[in-house]
C-alpha cells in the first residue's frame, strides 16, 4: 500500500487547452504544468511501516485525511509556503511520517526546501521548481479550484509511480525508486478492471475551514 500528496504547479493563467506536442505527446515536460510534481509518499520517503493494512495509518478501517495549506505569513494574504498532511483514525490524530532518507532533512511536510532536497537526492527533474514551486501553486489556489474525487487506473504507467519500484529498470536500492510494496508487474488496467469490477470508495464528511478546525 502507498499514498502520496503532490502539488503540480502550472505557468498558465487559468484554464488553458493544449494542442499537439504542447500536451506532452512527445515530451511529457513540454507542457505548461509540472507532470511529476513534488510528492510526499511515506514509503518513498523512508517509512515503510506508516501507511497500509495494520500499519500506523491502518487502511483496513476508515480514516480522515487532513491537508493543510500554510502561508508565509499565516494569513490568506501570504504566499503558499508549506503543505501539511495529518490523519485521524479511531479518535486519534496521527501526524505525518518523517523523512528518513540520507542527505535529506527529517521533515514531515512539503516545503520548497523539501522539494529541492528531494529532487537532488533522488536525481529527479526539477520541473516543480521551473514551473514556480509552491508560490505558483498558491497563486492558483487563491483563484479557486474545483475539488475532484475519483477512483481510477493508469493506462500509461500502471500506477507503478505510486506503489511499486519506478522507473522499473532502476534498482530499488537507489533513493526514491521504491515507492510502495506492489510488484512491477501489477496495476495493469485490463487486469484491475476485470478482477475488481465492483471496486468502490466512499468519500464523506468533506470539510473546508481554518487550520485545525476541520477535524
Which terms would index this structure?
215 residues, 5 helices, alpha+beta, 3-stranded antiparallel sheet, 7 strands
In short:
With 215 residues, the chain is an alpha+beta fold. It contains 5 helices and 7 strands. The chain has a 3-stranded antiparallel beta sheet with strand order 5-6-7. It has a two-stranded antiparallel ribbon with strand order 1-2. It has a two-stranded parallel ribbon with strand order 3-4.
Cross-sheet strand order for the largest sheet: 5-6-7
Helix content: 10-25%
Instruction: Name the average pLDDT.
Output: 95
**Shape label:** globular
* Order of H and E elements: EEEEEEEHHHHH
Q: Alpha-carbon distance between the termini?
A: 24 Å
Structure classification: alpha+beta
Radius of gyration: 18 Å
Uncertain stretches of 5 or more adjacent residues: none
Report the portion of residues in β strands. 5-15%
Number-wise, the strands total: 7
Characterize the largest beta sheet: strand count, sense, and whether it forms a barrel. Answer: 3 strands, antiparallel
Number of continuous helical runs: 5
Account of the protein in words:
The protein is α+β, with helices and mostly antiparallel strands and 215 residues long. The protein has helices spanning 112-122, 127-130, 133-143, 160-163, 189-195; strands spanning 4-5, 40-41, 51-52, 57-58, 64-71, 80-89, 92-95. A hairpin with an 8-residue loop joins strand 5 (64-71) and strand 6 (80-89). The longest helix has 11 residues, at 112-122. It is globular, with a radius of gyration of 18 Å. 22% of the residues are buried.
Amino acid at each position: 500500500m502507498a499514498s502520496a500528496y503532490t502539488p503540480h504547479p502550472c505557468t498558465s493563467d487559468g484554464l488553458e487547452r493544449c494542442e499537439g506536442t504542447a500536451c506532452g505527446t512527445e515530451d511529457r515536460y513540454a507542457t505548461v504544468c509540472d507532470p511529476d510534481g513534488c510528492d510526499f509518499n511515506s514509503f518513498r520517503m523512508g517509512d515503510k511501516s506508516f501507511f497500509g493494512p495494520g500499519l500506523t495509518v491502518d487502511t483496513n478501517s476508515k480514516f480522515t485525511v487532513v491537508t493543510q495549506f500554510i502561508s508565509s505569513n499565516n494569513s490568506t494574504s501570504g504566499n503558499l509556503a508549506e503543505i501539511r498532511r495529518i490523519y485521524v483514525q479511531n479518535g486519534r490524530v496521527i501526524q505525518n511520517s518523517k523523512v528518513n532518507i540520507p542527505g535529506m532533512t527529517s521533515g514531515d511536510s512539503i516545503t520548497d526546501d523539501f522539494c529541492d532536497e528531494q529532487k537532488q537526492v533522488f536525481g529527479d527533474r526539477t520541473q516543480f521548481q521551473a514551473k514556480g514551486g509552491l508560490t505558483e501553486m498558491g497563486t492558483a489556489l487563491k483563484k479557486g479550484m474545483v475539488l475532484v474525487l475519483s477512483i481510477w487506473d493508469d493506462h500509461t504507467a500502471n500506477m507503478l509511480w505510486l506503489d511499486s519500484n519506478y522507473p522499473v529498470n532502476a534498482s530499488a536500492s537507489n533513493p526514491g525508486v521504491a515507492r510502495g510494496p506492489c510488484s512491477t508487474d501489477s496495476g495493469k488496467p485490463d487486469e484491475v478492471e476485470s478482477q475488481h469490477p465492483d471496486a468502490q470508495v466512499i468519500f464523506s464528511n468533506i470539510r473546508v475551514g481554518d487550520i485545525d478546525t476541520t477535524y
